[in-house]
Protein backbone atom coordinates (compact mmCIF):
# COMPACT_ATOMS: atom_id res chain seq x y z
CA UNK A 1 0.00 0.00 0.00
CA UNK A 2 1.34 3.34 -0.99
CA UNK A 3 2.08 5.79 1.81
CA UNK A 4 -0.86 8.08 2.68
CA UNK A 5 1.06 11.33 2.09
CA UNK A 6 2.08 10.16 -1.40
CA UNK A 7 -1.53 9.17 -2.16
CA UNK A 8 -2.82 12.61 -1.13
CA UNK A 9 -0.07 14.27 -3.20
CA UNK A 10 -1.14 12.16 -6.18
CA UNK A 11 -4.61 13.69 -5.86
CA UNK A 12 -6.46 11.05 -3.86
CA UNK A 13 -9.16 12.14 -1.39
CA UNK A 14 -8.59 9.98 1.69
CA UNK A 15 -11.21 9.26 4.37
CA UNK A 16 -8.81 10.61 7.01
CA UNK A 17 -6.23 13.14 5.81
CA UNK A 18 -2.61 12.28 6.60
CA UNK A 19 -0.87 14.63 9.05
CA UNK A 20 2.54 16.10 9.85
CA UNK A 21 3.49 19.41 11.41
CA UNK A 22 5.84 22.25 10.45
CA UNK A 23 8.74 22.46 12.97
CA UNK A 24 7.63 19.11 14.40
CA UNK A 25 11.20 18.57 15.64
CA UNK A 26 11.84 21.55 17.91
CA UNK A 27 12.14 23.23 21.25
CA UNK A 28 8.63 22.34 22.51
CA UNK A 29 9.95 18.74 22.88
CA UNK A 30 12.17 17.95 25.90
CA UNK A 31 13.94 15.21 23.93
CA UNK A 32 14.86 17.77 21.22
CA UNK A 33 16.34 20.12 23.81
CA UNK A 34 18.41 17.25 25.22
CA UNK A 35 19.84 16.29 21.80
CA UNK A 36 20.51 19.93 20.94
CA UNK A 37 22.43 20.31 24.20
CA UNK A 38 24.45 17.22 23.26
CA UNK A 39 25.25 18.78 19.86
CA UNK A 40 26.24 22.08 21.49
CA UNK A 41 24.25 24.48 19.32
CA UNK A 42 21.66 24.54 16.55
CA UNK A 43 24.06 24.60 13.56
CA UNK A 44 26.22 21.82 15.02
CA UNK A 45 23.02 19.80 15.33
CA UNK A 46 22.12 20.43 11.67
CA UNK A 47 25.57 19.31 10.48
CA UNK A 48 25.74 16.18 12.67
CA UNK A 49 24.02 13.40 10.66
CA UNK A 50 23.55 11.05 13.64
CA UNK A 51 22.00 13.69 15.88
CA UNK A 52 19.99 15.32 13.07
CA UNK A 53 18.60 11.87 12.26
CA UNK A 54 17.71 11.39 15.92
CA UNK A 55 15.78 14.70 16.22
CA UNK A 56 13.96 14.03 12.93
CA UNK A 57 12.78 10.69 14.32
CA UNK A 58 11.72 12.00 17.76
CA UNK A 59 8.29 13.37 16.71
CA UNK A 60 7.66 10.24 14.61
CA UNK A 61 8.24 8.02 17.65
CA UNK A 62 6.24 10.21 20.01
CA UNK A 63 3.26 11.04 17.78
CA UNK A 64 3.30 8.70 14.76
CA UNK A 65 3.10 11.47 12.13
CA UNK A 66 2.60 10.33 8.53
CA UNK A 67 5.66 12.28 7.35
CA UNK A 68 9.10 13.14 8.69
CA UNK A 69 10.79 16.35 7.57
CA UNK A 70 14.55 16.40 7.31
CA UNK A 71 16.07 18.34 10.20
CA UNK A 72 18.07 21.23 8.69
CA UNK A 73 17.44 24.92 7.97
CA UNK A 74 16.74 27.09 4.94
CA UNK A 75 19.80 29.20 5.78
CA UNK A 76 22.30 26.37 5.30
CA UNK A 77 22.24 27.00 1.53
CA UNK A 78 23.46 30.63 1.83
CA UNK A 79 26.12 29.36 4.22
CA UNK A 80 27.19 26.76 1.65
CA UNK A 81 27.37 29.57 -0.91
CA UNK A 82 29.87 31.33 1.34
CA UNK A 83 27.74 33.65 3.52
CA UNK A 84 28.64 33.81 7.21
CA UNK A 85 25.82 32.42 9.35
CA UNK A 86 25.32 32.35 13.10
CA UNK A 87 22.36 32.26 15.49
CA UNK A 88 21.90 34.70 18.37
CA UNK A 89 20.14 32.96 21.25
CA UNK A 90 16.66 34.33 21.79
CA UNK A 91 16.85 36.48 18.65
CA UNK A 92 17.39 34.36 15.54
CA UNK A 93 19.71 34.10 12.57
CA UNK A 94 22.42 36.56 11.52
CA UNK A 95 24.23 36.52 8.14
CA UNK A 96 26.77 38.63 6.31
CA UNK A 97 24.78 41.06 4.13
CA UNK A 98 24.53 41.54 0.37
CA UNK A 99 24.08 45.22 -0.46
CA UNK A 100 25.48 45.40 -3.98
CA UNK A 101 27.28 43.56 -6.79
CA UNK A 102 30.49 43.01 -4.73
CA UNK A 103 28.47 40.94 -2.21
CA UNK A 104 27.59 38.55 -5.01
CA UNK A 105 31.10 38.16 -6.43
CA UNK A 106 32.29 36.99 -2.99
CA UNK A 107 29.96 34.00 -3.14
CA UNK A 108 31.05 30.55 -4.29
CA UNK A 109 29.94 28.73 -7.42
CA UNK A 110 26.93 26.45 -7.44
CA UNK A 111 29.05 23.30 -7.74
CA UNK A 112 30.85 24.15 -4.49
CA UNK A 113 27.75 23.95 -2.25
CA UNK A 114 27.84 20.16 -1.81
CA UNK A 115 31.05 20.21 0.23
CA UNK A 116 29.30 22.08 3.06
CA UNK A 117 25.97 20.32 2.55
CA UNK A 118 27.21 16.71 2.37
CA UNK A 119 26.30 16.01 6.06
CA UNK A 120 22.72 16.99 5.20
CA UNK A 121 22.63 14.41 2.40
CA UNK A 122 23.99 11.84 4.87
CA UNK A 123 21.10 12.65 7.27
CA UNK A 124 18.65 12.02 4.41
CA UNK A 125 20.33 8.68 3.63
CA UNK A 126 20.18 7.69 7.32
CA UNK A 127 16.51 8.59 7.50
CA UNK A 128 15.49 6.76 4.39
CA UNK A 129 16.77 3.57 6.04
CA UNK A 130 15.41 4.32 9.52
CA UNK A 131 11.84 5.49 9.04
CA UNK A 132 8.82 3.20 9.51
CA UNK A 133 7.52 1.82 6.18
CA UNK A 134 4.39 4.03 6.27
CA UNK A 135 6.23 7.31 6.93
CA UNK A 136 7.10 9.64 4.04
CA UNK A 137 10.43 11.52 4.06
CA UNK A 138 10.18 15.20 3.10
CA UNK A 139 13.25 17.19 2.03
CA UNK A 140 13.13 20.98 1.79
CA UNK A 141 14.75 24.28 0.92
CA UNK A 142 13.81 27.91 1.27
CA UNK A 143 12.37 29.66 -1.78
CA UNK A 144 14.80 32.10 -3.47
CA UNK A 145 12.89 35.23 -2.36
CA UNK A 146 12.70 34.19 1.31
CA UNK A 147 16.36 33.14 1.43
CA UNK A 148 17.33 36.37 -0.37
CA UNK A 149 15.51 38.46 2.27
CA UNK A 150 17.83 37.02 4.94
CA UNK A 151 20.96 37.31 2.76
CA UNK A 152 20.26 40.97 1.96
CA UNK A 153 19.22 42.13 5.45
CA UNK A 154 21.55 39.81 7.38
CA UNK A 155 18.65 38.86 9.65
CA UNK A 156 14.89 38.39 9.78
CA UNK A 157 12.93 41.60 9.14
CA UNK A 158 9.24 42.35 9.80
CA UNK A 159 8.58 43.82 6.34
CA UNK A 160 11.58 42.55 4.29
CA UNK A 161 12.45 46.24 3.80
CA UNK A 162 16.13 45.82 2.80
CA UNK A 163 15.28 43.21 0.15
CA UNK A 164 12.54 45.42 -1.29
CA UNK A 165 14.99 48.33 -1.30
CA UNK A 166 17.68 46.38 -3.19
CA UNK A 167 15.03 45.24 -5.67
CA UNK A 168 14.07 48.88 -6.27
CA UNK A 169 17.60 50.37 -6.32
CA UNK A 170 19.79 47.67 -7.90
CA UNK A 171 17.49 45.35 -9.79
CA UNK A 172 20.39 43.61 -11.58
CA UNK A 173 22.08 42.52 -8.34
CA UNK A 174 18.74 41.51 -6.84
CA UNK A 175 17.81 39.40 -9.88
CA UNK A 176 21.28 37.84 -10.09
CA UNK A 177 20.87 36.73 -6.46
CA UNK A 178 17.41 35.26 -7.15
CA UNK A 179 18.85 33.43 -10.20
CA UNK A 180 21.80 32.08 -8.20
CA UNK A 181 19.48 30.86 -5.46
CA UNK A 182 17.08 29.30 -7.96
CA UNK A 183 19.90 27.37 -9.66
CA UNK A 184 21.57 26.28 -6.41
CA UNK A 185 18.23 25.26 -4.83
CA UNK A 186 17.67 22.92 -7.79
CA UNK A 187 21.07 21.29 -7.13
CA UNK A 188 20.49 21.13 -3.36
CA UNK A 189 17.03 19.55 -3.63
CA UNK A 190 18.17 17.23 -6.38
CA UNK A 191 20.87 15.80 -4.07
CA UNK A 192 18.30 15.39 -1.29
CA UNK A 193 16.10 13.41 -3.69
CA UNK A 194 19.05 11.25 -4.78
CA UNK A 195 19.76 10.57 -1.09
CA UNK A 196 16.18 9.38 -0.48
CA UNK A 197 13.80 12.33 -0.01
CA UNK A 198 10.42 11.22 -1.38
CA UNK A 199 8.84 14.70 -1.51
CA UNK A 200 10.34 18.18 -1.44
CA UNK A 201 8.86 21.33 0.03
CA UNK A 202 9.78 24.89 -0.91
CA UNK A 203 9.28 27.33 1.99
CA UNK A 204 8.48 30.87 0.83
CA UNK A 205 7.75 32.29 4.28
CA UNK A 206 7.82 35.91 3.09
CA UNK A 207 5.94 35.49 -0.21
CA UNK A 208 3.13 37.61 1.26
CA UNK A 209 5.16 40.81 0.96
CA UNK A 210 5.53 40.42 -2.82
CA UNK A 211 2.67 42.15 -4.62
CA UNK A 212 1.38 42.10 -8.21
CA UNK A 213 4.10 41.70 -10.83
CA UNK A 214 6.73 41.09 -8.11
CA UNK A 215 4.75 38.09 -6.84
CA UNK A 216 4.74 36.58 -10.35
CA UNK A 217 8.42 37.27 -10.99
CA UNK A 218 9.95 36.39 -7.62
CA UNK A 219 7.56 33.92 -5.93
CA UNK A 220 5.78 32.14 -8.75
CA UNK A 221 8.50 32.01 -11.41
CA UNK A 222 11.32 30.59 -9.19
CA UNK A 223 8.91 27.97 -7.78
CA UNK A 224 7.97 27.05 -11.36
CA UNK A 225 11.60 26.78 -12.47
CA UNK A 226 12.64 24.68 -9.46
CA UNK A 227 9.63 22.37 -9.81
CA UNK A 228 10.13 21.90 -13.57
CA UNK A 229 13.86 21.15 -13.22
CA UNK A 230 13.32 18.66 -10.38
CA UNK A 231 10.52 16.86 -12.22
CA UNK A 232 12.65 16.66 -15.38
CA UNK A 233 15.51 15.06 -13.44
CA UNK A 234 13.41 12.97 -11.06
CA UNK A 235 10.18 12.06 -12.88
CA UNK A 236 7.20 11.90 -10.54
CA UNK A 237 8.85 13.62 -7.57
CA UNK A 238 6.04 15.43 -5.70
CA UNK A 239 6.58 19.09 -4.80
CA UNK A 240 4.83 21.06 -2.04
CA UNK A 241 4.97 24.86 -2.40
CA UNK A 242 4.33 27.15 0.57
CA UNK A 243 3.94 30.77 -0.53
CA UNK A 244 2.98 31.89 2.99
CA UNK A 245 0.45 34.69 3.28
CA UNK A 246 -0.08 34.76 -0.48
CA UNK A 247 -3.83 35.34 0.06
CA UNK A 248 -5.45 35.66 -3.38
CA UNK A 249 -2.07 34.57 -4.78
CA UNK A 250 -2.82 31.01 -3.65
CA UNK A 251 -5.43 30.85 -6.41
CA UNK A 252 -3.86 29.24 -9.48
CA UNK A 253 -0.53 28.59 -7.75
CA UNK A 254 -0.64 24.83 -8.53
CA UNK A 255 -1.23 25.42 -12.22
CA UNK A 256 1.27 28.25 -12.58
CA UNK A 257 4.14 26.40 -10.85
CA UNK A 258 3.41 22.71 -11.46
CA UNK A 259 3.48 22.04 -7.70
CA UNK A 260 1.49 18.98 -6.62
CA UNK A 261 0.41 20.59 -3.37
CA UNK A 262 0.01 24.15 -2.14
CA UNK A 263 0.41 24.66 1.61
CA UNK A 264 -1.75 27.43 3.02
CA UNK A 265 -1.29 29.47 6.18
CA UNK A 266 -4.12 30.18 8.64
CA UNK A 267 -4.86 33.71 7.43
CA UNK A 268 -7.10 32.09 4.80
CA UNK A 269 -10.24 30.19 5.72
CA UNK A 270 -10.42 26.43 5.03
CA UNK A 271 -13.82 26.88 3.31
CA UNK A 272 -12.31 29.50 0.99
CA UNK A 273 -9.37 27.17 0.26
CA UNK A 274 -11.80 24.33 -0.56
CA UNK A 275 -13.58 26.55 -3.06
CA UNK A 276 -10.67 28.38 -4.68
CA UNK A 277 -7.45 26.35 -4.28
CA UNK A 278 -8.26 22.66 -3.69
CA UNK A 279 -9.99 22.21 -7.09
CA UNK A 280 -6.46 22.55 -8.60
CA UNK A 281 -4.88 19.83 -6.44
CA UNK A 282 -3.81 18.76 -2.98
CA UNK A 283 -3.74 21.40 -0.25
CA UNK A 284 -1.89 21.32 3.05
CA UNK A 285 -2.82 23.16 6.25
CA UNK A 286 -4.08 25.14 8.03
CA UNK A 287 -4.66 25.00 11.80
CA UNK A 288 -3.43 28.09 13.67
CA UNK A 289 -0.27 27.22 15.65
CA UNK A 290 -1.61 28.94 18.77
CA UNK A 291 -3.99 25.98 19.29
CA UNK A 292 -0.88 23.93 20.14
CA UNK A 293 -0.43 26.32 23.09
CA UNK A 294 -4.06 26.80 24.11
CA UNK A 295 -5.54 23.32 23.41
CA UNK A 296 -9.00 22.42 24.79
CA UNK A 297 -12.37 22.49 23.04
CA UNK A 298 -11.31 25.22 20.63
CA UNK A 299 -8.53 22.96 19.31
CA UNK A 300 -10.90 20.00 18.91
CA UNK A 301 -13.56 22.00 17.09
CA UNK A 302 -11.03 23.70 14.78
CA UNK A 303 -9.47 20.36 13.77
CA UNK A 304 -12.95 18.98 12.97
CA UNK A 305 -13.96 22.13 11.08
CA UNK A 306 -10.82 22.16 8.89
CA UNK A 307 -11.02 18.43 8.22
CA UNK A 308 -14.70 18.78 7.23
CA UNK A 309 -14.14 21.86 5.07
CA UNK A 310 -11.37 20.16 3.06
CA UNK A 311 -12.92 16.65 3.00
CA UNK A 312 -14.02 16.77 -0.65
CA UNK A 313 -10.55 16.83 -2.15
CA UNK A 314 -6.95 15.85 -1.45
CA UNK A 315 -5.74 17.28 1.87
CA UNK A 316 -2.69 16.91 4.10
CA UNK A 317 -3.45 18.18 7.58
CA UNK A 318 -0.85 20.57 9.05
CA UNK A 319 -0.51 23.84 10.92
CA UNK A 320 -0.62 27.18 9.10
CA UNK A 321 2.97 27.86 10.22
CA UNK A 322 5.54 26.23 12.53
CA UNK A 323 4.74 25.08 16.06
CA UNK A 324 6.15 27.48 18.69
CA UNK A 325 8.49 26.61 21.59
CA UNK A 326 5.76 27.35 24.19
CA UNK A 327 3.45 24.63 22.74
CA UNK A 328 2.32 21.70 24.89
CA UNK A 329 3.11 18.28 23.37
CA UNK A 330 -0.21 16.99 24.80
CA UNK A 331 -2.04 19.36 22.46
CA UNK A 332 -0.24 17.77 19.51
CA UNK A 333 -1.52 14.38 20.67
CA UNK A 334 -5.04 15.83 21.01
CA UNK A 335 -4.84 17.26 17.46
CA UNK A 336 -3.82 13.88 16.00
CA UNK A 337 -6.41 11.90 18.00
CA UNK A 338 -9.16 14.32 16.98
CA UNK A 339 -8.17 14.13 13.33
CA UNK A 340 -8.01 10.34 13.30
CA UNK A 341 -11.31 9.80 15.18
CA UNK A 342 -14.19 8.54 13.04
CA UNK A 343 -16.01 11.49 11.49
CA UNK A 344 -18.94 12.52 13.70
O1 LIG B 1 10.10 21.66 10.36
C1 LIG B 1 11.03 20.98 10.86
O2 LIG B 1 10.93 20.38 11.95
C2 LIG B 1 12.29 20.80 10.03
C3 LIG B 1 13.39 21.69 10.28
C4 LIG B 1 13.27 23.16 9.94
C5 LIG B 1 13.88 24.16 10.75
N1 LIG B 1 13.73 25.35 10.10
C6 LIG B 1 14.56 23.93 12.02
C7 LIG B 1 14.81 25.07 12.92
C8 LIG B 1 12.69 23.80 8.84
C9 LIG B 1 11.87 23.21 7.72
C10 LIG B 1 13.02 25.18 8.96
C11 LIG B 1 12.63 26.18 7.94
C12 LIG B 1 12.95 27.59 8.17
N2 LIG B 1 14.04 28.13 8.79
C13 LIG B 1 12.17 28.66 7.67
C14 LIG B 1 10.94 28.52 6.80
C15 LIG B 1 9.73 28.13 7.56
C16 LIG B 1 9.21 29.16 8.53
O3 LIG B 1 9.24 28.87 9.72
O4 LIG B 1 8.77 30.23 8.06
C17 LIG B 1 12.79 29.85 8.05
C18 LIG B 1 12.31 31.26 7.75
C19 LIG B 1 13.99 29.51 8.75
C20 LIG B 1 15.02 30.43 9.29
C21 LIG B 1 15.14 30.30 10.75
N3 LIG B 1 15.68 29.20 11.40
C22 LIG B 1 14.77 31.26 11.73
C23 LIG B 1 14.13 32.61 11.44
C24 LIG B 1 15.09 30.71 12.97
C25 LIG B 1 15.00 31.39 14.31
C26 LIG B 1 13.62 31.40 14.83
C27 LIG B 1 13.39 30.24 15.78
O5 LIG B 1 12.35 29.59 15.64
O6 LIG B 1 14.26 30.04 16.61
C28 LIG B 1 15.61 29.41 12.74
C29 LIG B 1 16.06 28.44 13.77
C30 LIG B 1 15.48 27.07 13.71
N4 LIG B 1 15.30 26.31 12.58
C31 LIG B 1 15.11 26.27 14.85
C32 LIG B 1 14.69 25.02 14.35
C33 LIG B 1 14.25 23.81 15.15
C34 LIG B 1 15.24 26.70 16.29
C35 LIG B 1 16.68 26.54 16.63
C36 LIG B 1 16.92 26.15 18.03
O7 LIG B 1 16.90 24.95 18.34
O8 LIG B 1 17.20 27.07 18.80
TrEMBL record:
Gene Ontology molecular function: uroporphyrinogen decarboxylase activity
Swiss-Prot/TrEMBL keywords: Cytoplasm, Decarboxylase, Lyase, Porphyrin biosynthesis
UniProt key word Cytoplasm: yes
Lineage: superkingdom: Bacteria
Domain (Uroporphyrinogen decarboxylase (URO-D)) ranges: 18-27, 138-154
Function: Catalyzes the decarboxylation of four acetate groups of uroporphyrinogen-III to yield coproporphyrinogen-III.
Family, per entry: Belongs to the uroporphyrinogen decarboxylase family.
Protein name per the record: Uroporphyrinogen decarboxylase
Naturally occurring in which organism (per UniProt): Jannaschia faecimaris
Amino acid sequence: MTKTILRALAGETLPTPPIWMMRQAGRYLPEYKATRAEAGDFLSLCYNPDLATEVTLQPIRRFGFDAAILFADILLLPQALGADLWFVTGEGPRLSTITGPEGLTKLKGIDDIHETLSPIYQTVRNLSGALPAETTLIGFAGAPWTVATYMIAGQGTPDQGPAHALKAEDRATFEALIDLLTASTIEYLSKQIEAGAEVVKIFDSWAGSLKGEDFSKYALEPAREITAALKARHPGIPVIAFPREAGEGYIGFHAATGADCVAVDNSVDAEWVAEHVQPDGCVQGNLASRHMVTGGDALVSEVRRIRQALSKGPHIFNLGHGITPDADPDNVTLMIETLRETQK
